[in-house]
Queue: 2 jobs
Job 1
Amino acid sequence: GVEVGPQPQGVARADVLDKMRKIVKHGLDFVQLFNEGKEFPPCTIEVFKIMEKVDYPRNKNGEIIAIIHPKLQDQDWQPLKNGDPLFLTLDGKVIPYQGNCTVYPTFINEAAYYEKKQAFVKTEKIKLTAKHLRLPVS
């Protein structure tokens, strides 16, 4: 599957549709070249590995008591370091990120995840290395 976004629910965006078309085309081009016997050299790519889902701060009744800090809003895939603003309480107090490593949040403040008790997902940036790839000769 391919998920391209962000895109609000019920909204059709030309720029997001164009990105999706390009991704699908690259995938199909790869399959065609692989099936034709093209050899792909080894490569390394940076990816984001999910660490954990993070909920909003809540009171004892389960009600949200803080919102995403404005400096974090719309900063998907950007580094979040220890001490950076994370949440803003309804009375204006900043709740900073407290972590022992830099993380890369994504799905920040997505409406579809409120019911799932998810403010964002913490990811870590890692490198994956692939060996050369070629269709075996029959």
Note: The mean pLDDT is 92.
Job 2
Amino acid sequence: IMLHSTLALSLLLIAVTSNLAMAIKKEKRAPQTLSRGWGDEITWVQTYEEGLYQAKKSNKPLMVIHHLEDCQYCQALKKAFAENEEIQEMAQNNFIMLNLMHETTDKNLSPDGQYVPRIMFVDPSLTVRADITGRYSNRLYTYEPQDIQFLIENMKKALRLIQTEL
């Protein structure tokens, strides 16, 4: 009987431990839902309002990515964005990051329409940078996967403009 209960207890312990390990693993991944695939190492804010607050408080520019799950252009850009180490590092260290799957009430974030993907920068003085645009005149704030280098330059420009203007 002693052996039987020891075995039962051991099995119970094993079951509890593996469930716990699974729970811990899940727990570790939980906060990453905000990344939505744009970069799990990046700290993402949840709302535009939170982004503005953090930008002002930290004196870092806010980068707002508008995208939709079922948009193939968004998916392609997201993949290029997530795989680029320079972007990931800058996003992690120098920017307040927000990706949105819905529009904000701030009309300054859609100066030439509501399309996706659309990436805009807001500086810590809470000014939307309408002067930091992509390569396309019909959709000023859109980027394609092959424009990643251009996006990197625009991220650097957003950082430079803050330092010179504030």
Note: The beta strands are 62-66, 96-100, 118-122.
